[in-house]
Amino acid sequence: MFCIFLRGKAIDSWAVGQHDEINKRGERGMSVINRLATSLGRRDDVLNQKLAKELVETQARADIEELVANLRHQDRNIQSDCIKVLYEIGYIAPELIAEYVEDFLALLRSKNNRLVWGGMSALATIAELKSDVLYQHWHEIKAAIEQGSVITVDRGIKTLSAIAGKSEQYRKAILPYLLEHLQKCRPKDVPQRAEAILKAIDSESKERFAEVIQMRMTDMRPPQKKRLEKVLAEAKKL
Questions:
Q1: Helix (H, G, I), strand (E, B) or coil at 37
Q2: Any idea what the CATH number is for the domain that residue 48 is in?
Q3: In a domain, 90, yes or no
Q4: Strand (E) or helix (H) holding 64
Q5: H-helix or E-strand spanning residue 187
Q6: How far apart are CA 226 and CA 26, in angstroms?
Q7: Which of 123, 209, 224, 216 is nearest to 171 (CA)?
Q8: Would residue 15 count as lying in a domain?
Q9: Which terminus, N or C, of the chain has the lesser number of Cβ atoms within 10 Å?
Q10: Residue 121 maps to a domain
């Protein structure tokens, strides 16, 4: 592990250079953990995002498996970096992390809030691929939303919306909760929530969805109303 700490731009070029060197040595068997930002003395996410992209490009399934295993590492910084890289992979290629759906669900029960919202972020990326599994746990996801941070709530609503959109059975069970959330969430969150919940809407539910949005319009500023009008226009096409 490197223990040199520099200030300003020097740390950027140095750390990125070290990351590239470690990436080359990774071909000879170096642990992916040594390529995390924490292992390189960095506190930002640039290197973790770069690592995620590299793992996708190389289809590095063994490294991804190692990241999942280290979600239980004794160092919380390592845990944090591992889940960060994993959900960044999910943004690009969700199929590479979909098999770890149960591991991400387990994070919702963690006492480490970073792992809770990180796990929910990962679930949001794979919800459409793993809707059958996640539907069996939707009450657990709902509980995490109701107890969670702003990010947990945001990613959780996206997760449930994606699940609900996959079948009529799932929609019938989950949509009432989503619409109730849309009715009660903070005004500033309404446009984003409506955009997410749109995935769960079909021709039979679009009128009720529109009614809830119209009820919330009185709370909205002009830019927010514009976003909601776009959502309504999309729903009308269903």
A1: coil
A2: 1.25.10.10
A3: yes
A4: helix 61-69
A5: none
A6: 49
A7: 209
A8: no
A9: N
A10: yes
Name the burial class of residue 234, with classes exposed (0-12), middle (13-18) and buried (19+) by CB atoms within 10 angstroms of its CB.
Answer: middle
Tokens of 214: 């119209």
Q: How many angstroms separate the CA atoms of 104 and 118, rounded? A: 8
197, two tokens: 């919940």
Structure tokens at 141: 């996801």
Q: Is 23 exposed, middle or buried (0-12, 13-18, 19+ CB in 10 A)?
A: middle
CA distances in angstroms from 90 to 34, 58, 106, 160, listed in the order given: 21, 15, 17, 17
Amino acid at 55: L
Model pLDDT for residues 20-64, shown as the tens digit of each residue: 544 444 444 579 999 999 999 988 889 999 999 999 999 999 999
Q: Residue holding tokens 């999309």?
A: 234
pLDDT at residue 4 greater than cutoff 90: no
Q: State both tokens at 199.
A: 């995935």
Residue 132: what pLDDT? 98
Q: Are 38 and 59 in contact (CB under 8 A)?
A: no
> How many other CB atoms sit within 10 Å of the CB of residue 165?
20
The yes-or-no verdict on residue 117 having pLDDT over 60 is: yes
Domain boundaries, position 91: 32-130
102 SS3 class: helix
Q: How would you class 227 by CB atoms within 10 Å of its CB: exposed for 0-12, middle for 13-18, buried for 19 or more? A: middle
Domain count, the chain: 1
Contacts with 91 (C-beta within 8 Å, 6 or more apart), sequence order: 52, 125
Residue type present at position 7: R
Task: Establish if 74 belongs to a structural domain.
Answer: yes
